[in-house]
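Table 4 source record.
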Amino acid sequence: MFIAVFTMCGCSDNSPKGVAEKAMSCIQAKDWEGYVDLMCFEEKEGQNIAKDKEQLAALLKAKGEKELDKKEGIKSFEIVSEEISEDGNTAKVKADIVYGNGDEKKDNTIKLKKDAKGNWKLDGGK
């Protein structure tokens, strides 16, 4: 559930699969700032994106580390599929995750969308 809720550090591979891999690596390393940098933030007038990112990273750290610690971290993950929408603006990447305690989560869906600059970013929306 944690990974599904927080569906992704600089990224050299600007494909949905590449961004999803980087996001999973950030979660595995508990690099919450790196993870938040991979998310799509739409600028609105009067919005302080830097502050929003900082607050979200703190929230992820508080909740994410607790969940990861329960499962003894992420031992490994594998990207198993990438599906890009017909319009090319959204994508779904599926990943299998193995936790340190031996639990497995198959077909975890990571949603992505292109930002205003055409870069793939994690879609934190609904």
